[in-house]
Amino acid sequence: MTTRVGLLLFDEVEVLDACGPFEVFSVATRVAARDRPERPAPFAVTTVAVGADRTVRARGRLPIVADVLLADVLADGTTFDLVVVPGGVTTAIEGDPDVLRWLGAAARSARTVASVCTGAFPLARAGLLDGLTATTHWEDLAELRERFPAVRVVDDVRYLDTGRVATSAGVSAGIDLALHLVARETDEQLAVATARQMDHPWTRADDGSP
To answer: CA-CA distance, 61 to 44, in Å (whole number)?
Structure first.
């Protein structure tokens, strides 16, 4: 079956935090179409913008046009199998009631909610990381630990997967987490073929993640 991915975009999102996982799911779908044409597409990604405009300005002022607005997703009740929250400057979205409401709903309806880098902060603010292990960018580990004492913050890992929630370290680590999610949602063979197609040396977690 096709895994429906909702990828959150917002002003000052880190470019590779968002575009790295997007590329992984896109390449996995192209590789599957080539190698497994008889099967359904493994992933369908919808980019979801916070705010009143589908165009967000990523870090470095890169404009990215999302598919839909978060307000519309909330209004029509669209659900996803996998939700990905990239990092960047997350201060605004941590306090955005629509973002927190969406993450709370996603925790109930999605198979997995994942974060890249400082995307762990809105997840923690929404209560999704309470009692779980989680990680983030190395510069932000102490802040995550101080602000959210109910979260068991882990250093020096590329990503952590607790089943319903997954988090990664900074920026490029989101690619490794996304490849892990490809393997989990489909199979190891497709994840390996995707990493090879991307010329990416996949660094896997050594923490016992499934």
So the answer is: 26
